Amino acid sequence: MKSICFIFGDQLSDSISSLARLDHENDVVFMCEVLEEATHVKHHQQKIAFTFSAMRHFASHLAKQGINIHYVKLDDPCNTGSFDGEIKRVMEMLRADKIILTEPSEYRVLEKVRAWQKLYTVEIIPDSRFLCTHAEFDAWITGKKQPRMEYFYRYMRQKHQFLMTEDNNPVGRKWNYDKENRRPLKGKIEIPDRITFEKDRITLDVLELVKTQFHDHFGELALFEWAVTRDQALQCLDFFIEKLLPQFGDYQDAMRTDEAFLFHSTLSPYLNSGLLLPLEVCRKAEQAYLNGSVSLSSAEGFIRQILGWREYIRGIYWHNMPNYAKENFFNAQRKLPSFYWDGQTEMNCLREVVQQTKRYAYSHHIQRLMITGNFALLAGLDPMAVCEWYLIVYADAFEWVELPNTLGMALYGDGGLLASKPYAASGNYINRMSNFCKNCRYNPDETVGDNACPFNSLYWRFISVNEDKLGKNPRFFYMYSHWRKMPDQKKAEILGQSEDFLSGW
Ligand code: FAD
Ligand code: DLZ
Ligand code: SF4
Q1: Can you state the percent helix, strand and coil of the chain, rounding each to 5?
Q2: Which residues line ligand 2 (CB under 6 A)?
C-alpha cells in the first residue's frame, strides 16, 4: 500500500504529525503551490512570496534527509491550480491508495479534505503543534457564560507550568502584568533594526514569479525581508529574545510614525507556517526571565500572547465555525472605503498603518485593533469586507487566527463572546498612544468643525446608534451617562458631523 503524505503550506515543521506516519520506503510527501490558494482572497504579494519560498525550502530540507518528495510548483505546466485537481493528479500518477495529512488549519480547507474522503482513504491526524486540543478547548468553554481569555490563560499556565511557583501560584503572585504593557513611546528611544537575510536562488525565483503573476495584488515586494527557513526563523527568535523582549512589555501598545515594528517580535508568520513552534518560543522567553535578562512583565506579556491569546483564538474559531464567520452583531453594512487599499486619506493614523501594511505585510496588534479595527467598528463597516481585508493584507493571516481577532475582538461582531466590551476609542486614545496626531491635519481635541478628528464624532455616533445593544453594558455606563446628559443641540451637531464625514469619503 502506498500513501501520500500531504503537507500544506502552513505545516512546515519537522514535527508535523503527518510526517511521523510516513513509511520512508513506500510513501511520498506531497506539496503543491496552487493558484486557488493564492487567489481565494488576493493575498498580499509578500504573503505569497513568503509561503512559496518557505514551502520550497522546506521541501528541499526534507529531500536532503532522503525523504521521497513530490513537489508541484505554481508554474508547472501540468498544475491544475487547485488542491482538488492536484490531489487527483498525484494519486493517479503515483498510484497511491491513501492520503495521510495533519488537519488543515482553516475550515474552508477541511471541507475540501472531507470531500476527498468520499473518493479516497484519508487519514486526518490532529495538529500536535498547538498546546490545546479541540476537545480540551470544548471542555473548557462548555457551560461558561463569559469564556474570557484571562481564565483560559491561567488554565494553560498551570497546565504547561509557565512562570509558576512550586506551590502552583503565578511567579510574582500576579497572573497578568497587562497594565504595565501600556506605556506610550516618548522621547528618544532606540529601536533596533530588524534582522535581515541575503536572498538565495529559491527566494529570488519566487519573488520574480510573484512579480509577474500577482502584480495586481495588494502590497509591495521591495522590502521583503522575511525569514524563509527554520534556521533563519530561529535567528529571528534569538534576536527578539536578546534585543527586543527587554522592552516588549513596556511598549506593547505604543505606536509611532515610520516605525512599524517597535519592540514586537514579528514572529507570527513563522509560528503560523510552522517554522517555529509555540512551545519553544514561550520556553525561550521564560528562560530569558529566569536568566535575569528580561523583566517578569515582559516575559509574562509575551507568553500571554502565545500561550493565552493564540491558543484561545484558535479554540474560539474551531468551536464556533462555520456560523461564526456570518455573525454581525451591530448589523454593520457600510462598504470598505478605498483608503483601506491605497492609504489616500487625510487621517494620518490610518494613512500610516495602511502604508506600513503595504510596505511590510505587517502592522502590530494595537495598530490592527485600535486604528484600522477601531475605525471599521466606529464607521459600521461590513464585517465580511473587513475580515476579507485583514485576510488579504498580512503575511501572518490565516482565517483561524484572523477571523476571531477581526470579527470578535476588533468588531465585536460576535456580540461579546470573545471581548467583554467593544474596543471603541476616540482620537484621544490614539493621541495618547502614538505621535500620529502631531502630523495630522485633524485635531484630536476637537469633535465638531473642519479640523475635528473624525474618530471623535464617529465615537459618539457609535454610542448613540447602538444604545439598544450597549446601553446596559456596565463597561459603557460612564459613556452613556455622559451622552445622555449632553444638550440636544450638541448631540445633533456631533451626529451631523459624523454623517457628513461618512457620506463624504
Ligand atoms: P507580538 O506582539 O510580538 O506577539 C507575539 C506573538 O503572540 C505573535 O507572533 C502571535 O503569534 C501571538 N499573538 C499576539 N496577539 C495575538 C492574538 N490576538 N491572536 C493570536 N495570536 C496573537 N495574528 C495572526 O497571527 N494572524 C492574523 O491574521 C491576525 N489578524 C489579526 C486581526 C486583527 C483585527 C487583530 C486585532 C489582530 C490580529 N492578529 C493576527 C493578532 C496580532 O495582531 C498578531 O499576531 C501580531 O500583531 C503579530 O505580530 P508579532 O509577531 O510582532 O506579535
Ligand atoms: C497561504 C498559502 C498560499 C498563498 N498558497 C499555498 C499553496 O499554494 N499551497 C499550500 O499548500 N498552501 C498555501 N498556502 C497556505 C494555505 O493557505 C494553508 O495551507 C491552508 O490555510 C491550510 O488550511
Ligand atoms: Fe488619527 Fe484623529 Fe489623530 Fe488624525 S487626529 S491621527 S485622524 S486620531
Answers
A1: 55, 5, 40
A2: 8-10, 32-34, 37-38, 43, 48, 51, 104-106, 109, 398
Select from 12, 52, 61 the least CA-distant residue to 34: 52
Distance 8 CA to ligand 2 centre (A): 6
Per-residue cell: 56: 520550497
Residue 251's identity, in one-letter code, is Y
Distance CA 108, CA 114 (A): 10
Coil, strand or helix at 292: coil
pLDDT confidence of residue 185: 77
Q: What are φ and ψ of residue 374, in 5° steps?
A: -60, -45
Q: Which ligand is nearest to the CA of 439?
A: 3
Instruction: Classify the phi-psi angles of 361: left when phi > 0, otherwise alpha if psi is within -120 to 50, otherwise beta.
Output: left
Q: Distance from the CA of 35 to the center of ligand 2, in angstroms?
A: 10
How many angstroms is it from 104 CA to the middle of ligand 2? 9
The Cα–Cα gap between 47 and 100 comes to 26
- CA gap 500, 497 in Å, rounded: 5
Return the C-alpha cell found at 6.
Answer: 500531504
The ligand 3 atom at the shortest distance from the C-alpha of residue 442 is 5
pTM summary value: 0.97
Query: For 173-208, how does the pLDDT look when each residue is reduced to its tens digit (9 = 90+)?
Result: 999 987 776 677 777 788 999 999 999 999 999 999
Ligand 3 atom closest to Cα of residue 441:
4
